[in-house]
Amino acid sequence: MISETLRALEKQLTPVPEKYLQHFSPAVCFLEERREYYIELPGITQLSINNIKFDSKLPEKGIFWVYIENSLGLACIQPMKDGRSEGNPLWVEVYSRKFPVPDEHLAFYQTLVGDLYQQAANLPFTFENITQRGVSEAPRMPTPLFIYHFLRCAVLAFEQASNTILAEPHRVLCDNPKQVMLHQTSEVDADVILSILQSHETWVESNDFYLSRLLQVEGRLYAPERVWQRQPEETYDTPENRFVLHFLRQVLTAADMLPTRSWWKAQSTDGVKKINELASILRQAIAHPMFAEVGDLYHIPFNSQVLMCREGYREIFKLWQQFNSSWQPLFDYWQQAVDVRKIHILYELWVFFKLINLVGESNPCQKVEIENSDAYGVKYLSKAIFQGGEVLIYNQTFHPRWKDCRSYSMVMRPDYIWLGENPSRQVVLDAKFSMSVTEKELENDNEIDGEQNSVVREGYPIRENLYKMHTYRDALVGTQAAVILYPGTETLFMTIEGKKRHHISLKEILSGEMNGIGAIPFSPMK
């Protein structure tokens, strides 16, 4: 009965084509967002979809009306009867009608994830937790997907840094105590004499040694066969080289682990090639003769001027900091969103970091303060502070009773607030993974043998989202402009004078001189 229920459920949904099963695993069916489904499952009284309960409209026939919104990605459908689960769940992939074919849905998701991790891995600044600064050694390995995207972006950095170190490695002069033959002695001091007197097992009879009188036993004169000597010697076995070797081995282990992951075969050819290239670079570096005499790492030399200042070592230390900051809840939260393919969550995070980097191209970012948690990843009031004093704030709350962040009507929390040179003229930005899609047929002037014309989809902002921008601009004190950032194709800005502009840049809006509301395309797809 249970297997029949699941089979009946599968028949009423669109199956995932066989060639995509690996990409969307464990999902076996597609469910379209914002589409009504009428599902008939006799004997079942309730459906649970990602813990959202749907009751049967006709309990005697087991007929359900299902409608999913704002929940893209992997979903679990669990048939239930009288409050109890009936057998195993059915895994489905909830996709958006913005991407009506699996290829487009998958391409957007993979590009979004790749670009999000690239933004984080190649940031021109460091993460700073508001309550704790600095980076300590991670108690556990970073998440596999972070490792993949981090290493994919860092191949050249590892190659250049390791080549620089191997070309001119750090070494120190140290004493290497050895027992040498008597004729090889070059230094005699109190320590050498004391060692001779204490090592009588090395004595041999001799009348020529000038200290033989001191070594006279029962009338016989002796001389040492071997003498203890300090021999100055250059060594590569330094704390800094131990650190480099330890980190290179750690990264190689992480890279070698990636092909064992279920999603590895679904990665792009270019990504796999870069990981393999990095593994080869690391193996060659670790096998260098210089590292043959380098021992194990027992502590990290945080205060070493070599690590902080010397070329090659400095870059390796920065890579280590980036690699080992990934254990923080920020990246764990991303991993959870990636695992279940929550595109709308990943898109909101991507927009935040993309904004930082775009603004940073002309106005360098001085500091990013990321307050994170297991539940939210990037928490409210995380911010980026730029060289000119401008600030980008994530999820700031506005309250009718608050003086500095005031809303005259109700509590509001837009995704991002931009405070420019004049903080009293702020700009509200809201990430919306939604749009109205239309198809436009392009005429093919060179149509041959009945070749069909090309069809291009265009994305426009949804009217309800524009209404919300009106609400933000009207209700939040000091707001000059409120703009949607969405993965569409059409730019629109409406000024308070009633003029429409279809060609306007983000830079113009962030200047604080524009008054009105609008929408700007913002997509990781090139």
What would you say this structure looks like, in words?
- The chain folds into 4 domains: 2-95, Immunoglobulin-like (Sandwich), CATH 2.60.40; 108-170 and 236-337, no CATH class; 177-230, no CATH class; 396-521, no CATH class.
- Helix content is 32%, strand content 24%.
- The strands form 8 sheets. The chain has a 10-stranded mixed beta sheet with strand order 10-17-20-21-22-23-26-29-27-28, with helices on both faces. Strands 1, 2, 4, 5, 7, 8 and 9 form a 7-stranded mixed beta sheet that branches.
- A hairpin with a 6-residue loop joins β22 (416-419) and β23.
- α3 packs across α12 and α5 (155-167) packs antiparallel against α10 (313-324).
- It is elongated and about 115 Å long.
- Mean pLDDT is 81; it is low at 124-139 and 445-450.
